[in-house]
Amino acid sequence: MKTFLVIGLGRFGSAAAGKLYDMGHEVIVLDEDEELVQQCADQSTHAAIGDAREISVLKAVGAADCDCAIVAIGSDLAASIVVTMNLKDLGVPKIVCKAKDDMYKRALERIGADQVVIPEKEMAIRLVQSLGSNSFLDYISFSEEYGIAEIDPPEDWEGKTLRELNVRKRFHVNILSIKNTATGAVNMAPGPDDVLSDRDTVMLMGRNEDIMQLQRM
């Protein structure tokens, strides 16, 4: 179990706090809006009202003892920067920030945020990746450069072993698992001698551009 501090209880912050709490982690939520704090009280270990721009407030809620802080203010860059700097001064091991655009993201990365996410942009990328091709069953972009996709493999892969396909060398992706859509069986550790059938889908990982090139075959 880890301890998380979630600052800012809009849609993103409250959803993150609720999910972490459901996963069994200790979750501290903090916002200036009393109503938002009350709404999240049942999905947190401790709910506090206060201005995270004041380092004394962060100290009072135990920010220094948290494993990770999520700064979910998003729309207020100045506030996000001050809060992030406060968290850095308190020695929080990992700081994740929400940003509304790439300019915000660059600014937050420069002042020390360990990870910056743009939820709307990342959701849009995942959506168009899924909708843009009939071969994609699901797509997860976990960075601007890399992703994981479940696809219907190209027809010429049918009946061939993974050794013969050699996808790592030819397409610069790695096959993580093979799923038989008829039986639902999943091979989580496919070997070089496993043969793909016309009923299989594959989960693969690689650079987003390599995955996109592969799905166009």
Give the arrangement of secondary structure elements.
Layout: E1 3-7, H1 11-22, E2 26-31, H2 34-40, E3 46-49, H3 55-60, E4 68-74, H4 77-89, E5 94-99, H5 102-110, E6 115-117, H6 119-131, E7 136-141, E8 146-151, H7 162-165, H8 167-171, E9 173-180, E10 186-187, E11 200-207, H9 208-215
Parallel strand pairs: 1-2, 1-4, 2-3, 4-5, 5-6
Antiparallel strand pairs: 7-8, 8-11, 9-10, 9-11
Compose a concise summary of this entry:
The protein has helices at 11-22, 34-40, 55-60, 77-89, 102-110, 119-131, 162-165, 167-171, 208-215; strands spanning 3-7, 26-31, 46-49, 68-74, 94-99, 115-117, 136-141, 146-151, 173-180, 186-187, 200-207. It has 217 residues and is α/β, with parallel strands linked by helices.
* Rounded radius of gyration (Å): 22 Å
How much of the sequence lies in strands comes to 25-35%
Provide the structure class: alpha/beta
How many DSSP H or I helices? 9
Q: What is the rounded distance between the termini?
A: 44 Å
Number of E-state strands: 11
- The overall average pLDDT, rounded, is 87
Q: What general form does the structure show? A: elongated
Low-confidence stretches: 129-136
* Helical amount: 25-40%
String of helices and strands: EHEHEHEHEHEHEEHHEEEH
Strand neighbour order, sheet with most strands: 3-2-1-4-5-6
Instruction: Summarize the biggest pleated sheet.
Output: 6 strands, parallel
